[in-house]
Design goal:
Length: 189
Amino acid sequence: MICALKYRSVLLHVSLCRSGTFSSGAAFGYNTNVRAIINHLYTLTLSLWVGGIFLFTFVVTPVIFKSYGRDMAGEIVGKLFPSYFLFSVFVSVASLIWYLLSFPEGKIHGHNLSLMLLTAAVVLSLYVSVRLHPEIRGVKQQIASFETVSPEDPLRKKFSALHVRSAILNILMLADGVALLIIRCRLIT
């Protein structure tokens, strides 16, 4: 079975080389059409990243908190967070992959800032999704009601500190994405 899969993989590679999909048969030797598609996918993914974070942070969340009481709004946003954090992981990883694939023959010379920003975004989004959000959710579950529990309560203070950290990291992710889009636009023009 494994040999059959390897054989099919080799046939696919040979077929792609003959069809011109790979210009030289090298691992990253895409022709110009494939490279253009990858570059567009990178730009699209960055746009989704920035737009998604902006929309959730500055439109969706404030509307929910203005429309419902503190506890109900917290419940609604709390239900949205797992998908939001998964989205952040997905767009940061996808952006990094598209970025790496966009270079001819894997040569990434002179693009260290973008690579650092993309790597930082992947690390931040994984940290928030895997470590910080579960910790916040655990503390939140111990608080009966944000409307009745005093802001001086130790659990409430811990929740606030974690929430501030999460908000700062969210803004950093947004700024990271904006910086990458600016760099991308400067490279295009």
